[in-house]
Amino acid sequence: MNRSILVVYRPEAGRYTAQFRSVVAAADSLGVRTVVLMPEGWDAPETDGLPRYHADLEDTASVRAVVDRIVAEHRIERIFPLFEGDVLPASRCRRDHGIPGLTPDEALNFRDKNVMHRRAEELGIRVARSTRPDTVGAVAEFAEQVGYPVVIKPYAGWACGSTYRVDGREDLDRVWREMGDDRHAYRVEEFITGVEFHVDSLLQNGDVVFEQLSRYTYSVLAYQDEPGGTISRKYHLTEHEQRILDLNAEVLRGFGMRTGVAHAEFFLRDDGDVVFGEVGARAGGGSIVPAIEAGRGINLAGEWCRLELDPSHRPAARLGPEVGTEYLSSDKYGRITAISTSEELMALDSVLNADIWKSVGDVLAPPTRSNDVLGWYVCEGLDYDDIRGRFKTVRDAFRVETEQEAVRD
Question: Positive or negative CA dihedral for 225, 228, 233, 238?
Answer without folding.
Answer: positive
